[in-house]
Design brief:
The protein is α/β, with parallel strands linked by helices and 65 residues long. It is built from two helices and three strands. The chain has a three-stranded parallel beta sheet with strand order 2-1-3, with helices on one face.
Length: 65
């Protein structure tokens, strides 16, 4: 069982965010390009933090999710 207390969603596949993995459980987009909306909504439902790009649609539906 992990002792990491936080979940962070990273919407891009970029290695420069590897340090976050040492302090949080991370879901990171495994593919280049924009994380599909349905996956973003699903993975962020129980997330403590989101590291996203301007290409991700962060709107009322996302915030209410």
């Amino acid at each position: 069982m992990s002792n990491k207390q936080f979940k962070v969603v990273i919407t891009e596949a970029a290695p420069e965010y590897n340090d976050i993995k040492s302090i949080a459980n991370v879901y990171q987009n495994p593919n280049p390009g924009t994380l599909p909306r349905d996956i973003l909504l699903k993975e962020s439902k129980d997330a403590d933090g989101i590291l996203c790009l301007l290409s991700n649609k962060i709107d009322k539906e996302f915030l209410d999710n």
